[in-house]
Amino acid sequence: MTTLLPAGTETGRRSGVRTAAAIVAFLMLAVVLPLLIHGASAVFFTDTDFLIRYAVVLYAAVKLALVLAQPAIRPVSGVFWIFVYTCMGVAPLAQLTTGRSTPLAIQVDDRMLTEASLLTLVGLVCFDVAYHLRLRRAADPHPRRRVLRLRGMKVLRLFSLGALAAGLVYIVQVGGLSVFFLSRQEAGEALDAINPDSGQALRAIISGAGSVANLCALIFYIHVVRTREHAVAMPDILLMAALTVMNIVVNNPISNSRYWTLAVLFGLILPLIRGRKGLFNLAILGGTFASIFVFPLSDITRRAAGTQAPLQVDSVWTMIATKDYDQFTMLANTLGYTADHGLSWGMQALGPLLFWVPRVGWPDKPYDTGVEVGIWMNNSNLNLSAPLWAEAWINFGLPGVVLAFAGLGVLARRLDAGYRADVLGMGSVGYLGISIFAGYLFILMRGSLLQSMGRLMILAISILILTTAANARKGRTP
């Protein structure tokens, strides 16, 4: 005889499982890994320096544990705290204990590194407070519930055809299919050869339209198939097959940056997860540990064949300290840059805001923040990051950091609200755009903003074309 458990019992059991998983994750992230990093000590450092950097690790570990423990799915804040934990927490801590770092660190002293840690904490507090801030509003007895709905299958089909056409233009412009299966260096050189006089604006639009539009179309088709809210005809099957092939070409991890690969993966996985909290928790935990143990090893396709430096790894912590996580040191270098040149008072922000203006028509257009700081550093490699802290600081200093992260906190809260179970059950497709944006947040947080604006604009336009606001309808909760 089958015994049916009360609904409350099942809910309580799931809550207990989530809580237990969150506690284990917290112990791993906040205790075990930092102790392993401390045990890898190869140079002298003070307890004060260690505790200042560990504060970022601890803060992010607490927030990640809370993301896991909550019944709600919060993809934007989840990605935010993954980035903070690894790039602004673990990597700087490993650099301190191993005495190793990227070559960029030679430009800064200990004082600026400490200031970078404290500025990181300021941004985290502002994000956290804004995310949880609730302003009182007068209660509306008859609230209007509006959600984003798919405009229709005809619109999706036409958009998919346009995306495929943009993908073909992208392929032709860079020199054919083979370019997309070479190294990132060679693919980047082919992209840079597109109309060199126009600067990066035209190239960003061409690559963004070819990659982002095809990704959006495929993700929306995944939603259609998964929810069965619309009939799928033979043309749709053919379009899905073509979109899959096109995404394999233009969005493959061989010729694209690893941060874009992360954005693509999150954009594809989250719609499949939809309202399943257990699978979401696995994605967050997997993403966190992969960012530490897998991501630094995944640059084997960065250079052309024969030019890749042999991989030499003394330990996982040395690898993290010396590989690609330059965000913390670039924040410190930005502090050094502004100490010499002063703040830009918004001039640097004009570059991302007006990224679509060709440099040939605007000779004084600001360079990427990473490039600007790299020139000041006399660095030969100008492909440098500029984390959001650096972008905010170089424009308006401390007030810029406060406002930027408070604004991001408010935006993250609003977007995460689109993943509520009741919203998902109303037939909303808004969570699809949120899924892609959550993955793209890796790129926005890493910076520079000027480089990321092209794809972000195409993403926004794609969502506007494919969706429309409509009255909510009751549906089955996922």
Describe this structure as you would to a colleague.
The chain is mainly alpha-helical and 478 residues long. Among the domains are: 7-98, no CATH class; 148-301 and 433-471, no CATH class. 66% of the residues lie in helices and 2% in strands. The protein has 18 helices and two strands. It has helices at 7-39, 47-69, 75-98, 110-132, 153-174, 184-192, 200-227, 234-250, 258-273, 277-293, 316-322, 327-341, 350-353, 369-376, 388-416, 421-424, 430-446, 449-466, and strands spanning 146-150, 467-471. A two-stranded antiparallel sheet has the order 1-2. Helix 1 packs parallel to helix 3 and helix 5 (153-174) runs parallel beside helix 8 (234-250). The longest helix is centred in the first third of the chain and has 33 residues, at 7-39. It is globular. 44% of the residues are buried. Mean pLDDT is 84; it is low at 1-5 and 138-142.
